[in-house]
Amino acid sequence: MNKMNVIYLHTHDSGRYISPYGYNVPTPNLRLFANDSTTFRKCFCAAPTCSPSRAAMLTGQTPHQNGMQGLVNRGWHLCDNRKHIASFLSSHGYETVLCGMQHEGSSWSELGYQRFIGHSESEKMDRVTWDLENTDYAVDYLMKHDPAKPFFLSMGWFNTHRPYPKAGKEINSDFIQVPAILPDCDIVRKDMADYMESVCVVDKCFGKIYEAIKKLGLLSNSIIFFTTDHGIAFPQMKCNLFDSGIGVSLMFAYPDNKMKGHAVDSLVSHYDVFPTICDILGLNRPHWLCGTSFVEIMRGEKNEVRNEIFAEVTYHASYEPKRCIRTNRYKYIKCFYSQNIIPANIDESPSKKYLIGNGFLDFEKKRELLFDTVLDPMERINLADNPEYNDIKESLSAKLHDWMKQTDDPLLISNNIPKPVGALVNKWSCVNPEMEDYILPDNSDYKY
Questions:
Q1: How far apart, in Å, are the Cα atoms of 89 and each of 5, 58, 85?
Q2: Contact, 346 vs 428, CB < 8 A?
C-alpha cells in the first residue's frame, strides 16, 4: 500500500473569517471542503505573528525553542532546519514540494523542500495574479505527479495579507458585518470589504486545488489540511494574544475520518498538527515535538486531548514580549513590559488610522490580564485584580510559568531577549512598521 500524501494549504492573516466559521464571507469552496474534513472551532496558533506561528506549527516547537522569535524577513532564523516538517518527511521518502509562500526560512531548500514550483516571492507582480498563477502550477504538479511516490505539497497564498485588493461591485461595504472588536463605521466596513475581496481570491485558488484533488481521488489517500497563521490584520487582532489574534481556522481531512463533515469544539493548538500527521502516517514522532496528536478526536474516541493551549509574542516589527495560557474557560495573559499600545506592531490600514485618530494609542496596557471566555468572549473585562478570581489567576500563572520553564523560555532569565545582530526592529516610538526607524544594528541602543 502506498504511503499517504500530505497537502498543506495555507493563507496569510485570515483568522477564522471564512464561511465555514459562520461569517458572511464568500468562500463557497472552503465551505465545500468542510463537508470532507473536520472543522476545529477552537484551534489556536502558537504565536499571532507570521514567521513564529508557521515555524512553531511546522517544527512542533515553541518560537523561543526553535529560534524564530521574530520575522524571517527581518533577520530571524530557525536554530535547526532539520526539525522542519519538510525535512522530516523528506527523510522518510516523501517528495517535498513548495509552491508560493513560506515564512520559515530565507530559502526554501534550507527547510528540506526538494522542489520549488511557481513564481518566487521576490518576483514583482500583482499578488492576486501571483496567487492565481501559483495555484495553476500546483494543480499542474498534482496532475502530473507519480502516484507511486508519496509527496508533501505546501501551497501558500499571499492573500489575505495586506495590502488588500480593492473590493469589487459584488461586495457592498454598506451591508457587511465588521469584527465585533472593531467600530462599525464606514471606514472600517470598507476596509473589511477589501479583506473580503482578498479572501475571495484565496477561495478561488482553493477551489482550483480542491477540484484537482477530487478529480485525482486524492481525498482517499491523502492528509489535506487548510489553516492560516493568525488573526486578520486589524487592530487588536494580529499580533495580539486575544482570541481575535490567536484564533485560527483549521480544517483537517484524511481517509476514514469519522468526524468528516463535522465541527468540533475540542481545544487544539497548531503545535498538535505535526504529531497528528505522524500518527496518521504511522511515523514515530520526533523527540522534540511539544504538541499532542488530535487523531483520537477525529476517530471519535475522545472529545478533548488537552486542557490548555499556550501562545506567545516576542518580536514583530517592535519588541513586545508577552505569553498566555488559555483553557476552555479562562485566558491569562502576562505582559513583560508595562507600555502603551505599540503602533508598529499593527499593520498599516484605514482602520488603524481611524482608531489612532480617536485616541487608540492612549490606552495603557496592563501587565496581567485574566478573562472568562465563557461569560466575556470578547475579552473586555479584566479580572486579574478581582480578588474573587485570585485562585484562578494564581493557578493559571503557575501553569504558564511551568510551561515556560519546561520549554526553556529566555524570558524567565531576562525581560530583554536580544535580537540577532543585524535584525531589523522598529523603535517603540515608531508608528508605522514600514518606516526605517530601527534600533541600531549592533544592539548598542538595545535599551527597553
A1: 10, 11, 6
A2: no
| pLDDT for position 124 | 79
Residues 6 or more apart whose CB falls under 8 angstroms from that of 196 comprise 25, 26, 167, 171, 176
Q: Distance between CA 355 and CA 357 in Å, rounded?
A: 5
Quote helix, strand, coil % in the chain, to nearest 5. 35, 20, 50
The SS3 call for residue 266 is strand
* Torsion of the alpha carbons at 391, 394, 397 and 401, rounded to the nearest 10: -130
Distance (Å, whole) CA 390 – CA 374: 18
Chain centroid offset of residue 155 CA: 15
pLDDT, tens digit (0-9, with 9 covering 90-100), for 263-304: 999 999 999 999 999 999 999 999 999 999 999 999 999 999
Helix (H, G, I), strand (E, B), or coil: what is residue 320? strand
Q: Number of C-alpha atoms within 13 angstroms, CB side, residue 244?
A: 17
The 10s digit of each residue's pLDDT in 23-34 is 999 999 999 999
- Report the first-to-last Cα separation within the chain, whole angstroms: 57
Task: Kindly report, residue by residue over 339-370, the tens digit of the pLDDT.
Answer: 789 999 999 999 999 999 999 999 888 999 99
- Per-residue pLDDT tens for 353-412? 999 999 999 988 899 999 999 999 999 999 999 999 999 999 999 999 999 999 999 999
DSSP, collapsed to helix, strand or coil, labels residue 127 as: helix
Band of the pLDDT at 121, cuts 50, 70, 90?
confident
Residue 11 and residue 29: Cα distance in Å, rounded? Answer: 14
